[in-house]
Specification:
about 150 residues, Aldehyde Oxidoreductase, domain 3, four-stranded antiparallel sheet, 4 helices
């Protein structure tokens, strides 16, 4: 299991290849990469803040929960902080298991919990000013299935 909270961009291909290479015996690897959205073309950047130590601990607990619930060979979570432009990769989840159902379910679980429960604070910056990103009802609803 690996959790990384970092300001630096990551290379999805390199991380995915390295992850797949270390999960001998797995029959499935699932990856998901989240990108900074610019819904209306007005986004100058997104600022992501976090509390070091607390964030890694919270994400590690989420990964531990997924590992206990599904038969995972390994899991990887990378989440960025700092100033990111529209289209940049903001986070990545990778899960590996003997069978695809566990890998997909665990990846979805991690994505839902990262979206709603990981301690990050996001501010959208535009020419008109800035605004904190509020929690969305649909993200909270997604958690209810777990």
């Amino acid at each position: 299991m690996q959790v990384s909270v970092q300001s630096e961009p990551f290379d999805l291909g390199v991380l995915t290849s390295a992850f797949a290479a270390r999960v001998a015996g797995a029959g499935a690897v699932v990856t998901f990469t989240g990108l900074v959205r610019d819904n209306d073309g007005q986004l100058a950047a997104m600022e992501i803040e976090h509390y070091p130590g607390m964030t890694e601990k919270a994400i590690t607990a989420m990964v531990d929960q997924a590992t206990a619930r599904w038969s995972l060979a390994d899991a990887l979570v990378v989440h960025r902080y700092g100033r990111l432009a529209g289209g940049e990769a903001i986070m990545m989840v990778a899960t590996a298991s003997r069978h695809r159902a566990d890998a997909f379910a665990a990846a979805e679980f991690l994505m839902d919990y990262l979206k709603s429960r990981a301690p990050f604070w996001k501010k959208e910056l535009s020419a008109d000013g800035s605004a904190w990103v509020a929690a969305r009802e649909e993200d909270e609803t997604a958690l209810k299935r777990w």
